[in-house]
Automatic annotation (TrEMBL), chain A:
Assigned EC number: 1.7.1.15
Domain annotation NADH-rubredoxin oxidoreductase C-terminal: ranges: 323-389
Residues covered by the Nitrite/sulphite reductase 4Fe-4S domain: 637-771
Gene3D superfamilies linked: 3.30.390.30, BFD-like [2Fe-2S]-binding domain (1.10.10.1100), FAD/NAD(P)-binding domain (3.50.50.60), Sulfite Reductase Hemoprotein, domain 1 (3.30.413.10)
InterPro entries in the record: BFD-like_2Fe2S-bd_dom, BFD-like_2Fe2S-bd_dom_sf, FAD/NAD-bd_sf, FAD/NAD-binding_dom, FAD/NAD-linked_Rdtase_dimer_sf, NasD-like, NiRdtase/SiRdtase_haem-b_fer, Nit/Sulf_reduc_fer-like_dom_sf
Residue ranges constituting the FAD/NAD(P)-binding domain according to the UniProt record: 8-297
Cited NCBIfam families: nitri_red_nirB, PRK14989.1
Organism: Arundinibacter roseus
Pfam families per the UniProt record, alphabetical: Fer2_BFD, NIR_SIR, NIR_SIR_ferr, Pyr_redox_2, Rubredoxin_C
Cofactors (names): [2Fe-2S] cluster; siroheme; FAD; [4Fe-4S] cluster
GO biological process assignments: nitrate assimilation
Protein name: Nitrite reductase large subunit
EC primary class: oxidoreductase
Higher taxonomy: Bacteria, Pseudomonadati, Bacteroidota, Cytophagia, Cytophagales
Keyword presence, Iron: yes
Automatic annotation (TrEMBL), chain B:
Organism domain of life: Bacteria
UniProt name for this protein: Nitrite reductase small subunit NirD
GO biological process: nitrate assimilation
Domain Rieske: start-end pairs: 14-115
A family per Pfam: Rieske_2
Gene coding for it: nirD
Alphabetical UniProt keywords: 2Fe-2S, Heme, Iron, Iron-sulfur, Metal-binding, Nitrate assimilation, Oxidoreductase
InterPro entries documented for this protein: NasD-like, Rieske-like_NirD, Rieske_2Fe-2S, Rieske_2Fe-2S_sf
Amino acid sequence: MSTTKTIQVVVVGNGMTGYKFCEKLVARSEEGSKIGITVFGEEPRVAYDRVHLSAYFDGKSAEDLELAPASWYQERGITLYLSDPVVAIDRTARQVRSHHGVVVNYDYLVLATGSGAFVPTIPGVDKEGVFVYRTIEDLDLIQAHARTARKGGVLGGGLLGLEAAKALLDLGLQQTHVIEFASRLMPRQIDEAGSDILKEQLQQLGLHMHLSKSTREITGEKKIDGLLFDDNQRLDLDMLVISAGIRPRDELAKAAGLATHPRGGIVVNESLQTSDPAIFAIGECALVHQMIYGLVAPGYEMAEVVAAQLTGKTKEFKPFDMSTKLKLIGVDVASFGDPFLSEPACRTIRYENKAKGIYKRMNLSTDGKYLLGGILVGDASQYNMLLQTYKNAILLPPNPEDLMLGSRGGEAEEAGAGVLSLPDDALICSCEGITKGMICEQVETHGQTSVEALKKSIKACTGCGGCTPMVKDLIHAVMKKQGIYVRNLICEHFDYTRQELLDLVKLNDLRTYNSVLDHFGKGDGCEVCKPLVASVLASAWNENVLANNLAPVQDSNDRFLANIQKGGTYSVVPRIPGGEITPEKLIVIGEVAQKYGLYTKITGGQRIDLFGAHVGDLPAIWETLIAAGFESGHAYGKALRTVKSCVGSTWCRFGVQDSVSFAIEIENRYKGIRSPHKLKSAVSGCIRECAEAQSKDFGIIATEKGWNLYVCGNGGSKPQHAQLLATDVDKEMCVRLIDRFLMFYIKTADPLTRTATWLNKMEGGMAYLKSVVVDDALGIAASLEADMQKLIDVYRCEWKEVVETPELRRHFSHFVNAPAEKDPTVGFDELRGQKKAKEWAVS
Amino acid sequence: MELLLDIPEKITWHMACHVADVPEDGGVCALIEGRQIAIFNFSRRGKWYATDNQCPHRQQMALSRGLIGSQHDEPKVACPFHKKTFSLESGKCLTDEAYKIQTFPVRVKDNRVFIGI
Ligand code: SRM
Ligand SMILES: Cc1cc2nc3c(=O)[nH]c(=O)nc-3n(C[C@H](O)[C@H](O)[C@H](O)COP(=O)(O)OP(=O)(O)OC[C@H]3O[C@@H](n4cnc5c(N)ncnc54)[C@H](O)[C@@H]3O)c2cc1C
Ligand code: SF4
Ligand code: FES
């Protein structure tokens, strides 16, 4: 092919394959060759996703379905004529002429005219209320007519017919009938037994089934009123959708003298050339290997084959797998390979569960080694794996039925591991020709670890979407192989997990939100990543949460160092370590509450909460409390809340250790440390467990010989008992173990994950946690302890700092231009001699 | 700094506060003729925004205390109460179509922030 002259390519048809061809050709010509592209489309709109046409009835707009906007063609220099079909080809002059009289020369002509619905020659097909199901215009007509119709029918019980039937059902028709000529549904895909199960399931969905029915006439005056069958029975209908097969659009080719098949289709060779070597045909109009491929994936492959040849490569179209899975009827149906092979040509395994509406069939080679085909009805969850096993001729395991039934009782994990056993060239996304190897490479070396990312990088899952579950399995399997926890990415601004970000923050010594965003994020942040980064910075450095311009990225509670309440006031919770408090301090709390009109309550955490404070009063309230020796209780932070205690051996007749002293020591040790979620603890003085230590993130129970340490307990909506981590340890060891445990949690947990949930997700569970924290299996115990000590060393009460720093204190006012004024909309009601927040105003 | 185009004729500009009163990438609430207005200094973009301070969800005077950020390219603020988010440009609620807040033009001159009402 000449490289100096621009090659002119004309594409007839702007459907799915026509578009895909343009996309592939443009991508290739960007590599060097000069190609001019002109496209003629008969439909009024740019190419759209016909496969998901039915989604139009589910609220998708025509634009949503577009494969690419009109601007896409413009930006790539493609001339696009819509609503203007090509009406003639002059092969000698190498010209096409359109309906509107546009004449364009071509070096190569690509026919992608698709197919139309096949409409059998039944009398009455031209009556009002009779439709086909192929274009958006068809759907508009159907929708408009359905408004006044009560009884609808679909002629044809194949793949597309059932899809159309489901659409009628969704349009709210009172009755929807399916009329099929053959004795079973989906005759090209499933066998009699499968059809029986499917029929029953569809009847439960509300469809009426009529099999072995040959239609003699569509009756009615101008408008359809019913069907008359060959057995003289009648069916009353207000509308009918004909879905009896497809008819390749070969009329243009035929008129131009190209070879066509008597039953329809433009005849092409393996290079997809028609009888004129300058003219190619692709998609549903092309007859190759003696057949029409009525699916999108082979059409896309044809587009690839021609695009390759026009850019100087050689490529042929090989017989294409026609396995299918029905998308949306509400009953899984799939078939692969040769579903109809029967003994003695193969060995067949069948499974039927009428109660559950499940039928499965596998055809094995006679030696039992390979899978040749099969059918799945009612449950197609194993489809992708079976398809791959068949396509890649993978040797079957000794109990091949496990493949189709799933490992019963076992963990679902195995499915994930199974995908890795596929060969690298296993075709996973057949629409886009993407292999297992390509996906693994994206995940392994390019860090594309979500379906969204793979859609962008290699267009995986962008066609029919059928491969999505398998692509997900592959992503997870590869990541697991690499020892990566499946990553929970933070939000659109950070493609990292919390753990990764914490490491990066420390490694790069970042101290402000903006520096983290500039280094590792994009955009402007949001309410998800801002508090998360703030918490990570706090876990890393334990600096005042309002320092370093961090106030505006803190969630409201952390920004004002108090919990926001219904109505917009705040609560004040001073720390009362271990629940122990002197009468003097109790009096100060009482005085403060009186002076500022606060509601007081003993909390479930053994301390006192003061509710209803105006934001402007907070610094003064805290000034008084701090002067009396109180500190922030961090009730607003993802941080240590309380360490509850029971009175223990100092007073209790059963107590074996001084639980209050230890609780106070623990609370003072870990106060202020920020973590992925709040932390709670308790210390009980004996086995009677009055402090409820086994419901805490870490709980300690006194024994005759020392202390038992329990971890990962939780109250809340899903209570979970803490589990024993160490027995009879002394105080010093107990504290070291807690240091390690907490630091390991802070470093590895996902955001807003309590210790119990963290443990539940941890592979290896408690045994693993113990090996890390107690046995130091990872060799990180010393560094965990050191990291914890660093945080403890820099602790300062953040409220004290605010009270003493005018610059920070200034921000505690409701009105920036009237700092002394309170929010006039705040209101209270009275209750038992105290106040309570006014009820929500509901709009 | 920022001068909005298409400002209708009858706008009155009210001095709300000084630039330094508003934290970078944060908000404050100003009382303007009895009305509570939330003012945001979106310094990452070098822009200022002003909206109602009241969240229409449960009528809480709280938006100035919300976190600001972006969703795709749309600048937004999240109410601290139940995290409904609102576009700072259009006032549209991005999480629930039922709600909307009013937005106001902002002008910054000589380190002073003016709101147009
Ligand atoms: C005040 C208090 C209720 C009381 O009047 O007693 C309370 C009040 C709140 N709890 Fe609690 N919890 C209080 C003890 C508890 C307890 C009991 C305990 O700690 O022994 C539990 C169960 C134990 C546990 O956490 O495992 C408890 C489990 C929760 C949960 C569920 C946590 C979970 O893992 O599922 C939440 C929701 C959350 O954090 O996401 C929560 C959240 C809240 C919040 C912060 C809700 C909020 O976001 O506004 C409440 C703040 C009120 C305020 O404005 O101050 N609170 N909360 C208690 C304060 C204890 C303290 O002194 O700090
Ligand atoms: C409801 C429905 C559901 C489907 N579901 C699936 C599925 O689940 N899986 C699957 O693989 N496939 C499915 N298909 C089939 C799939 O949509 C087709 O295989 C695919 O669209 C074929 O692409 P094509 O480009 O060859 O034809 P088309 O997409 O039909 O495009 C051909 C275009 O050429 C135009 N044209 C014809 N003649 C001319 C002319 N002379 N000049 C200019 N333009 C002309 C036509 O108007 C049309 O726009 C479904 C089809 C339908 C209708
Ligand atoms: S657990 Fe109960 S019995 Fe034991 S010391 Fe505490 S209060 Fe006493
Ligand atoms: S009050 Fe704003 S989100 Fe509920």
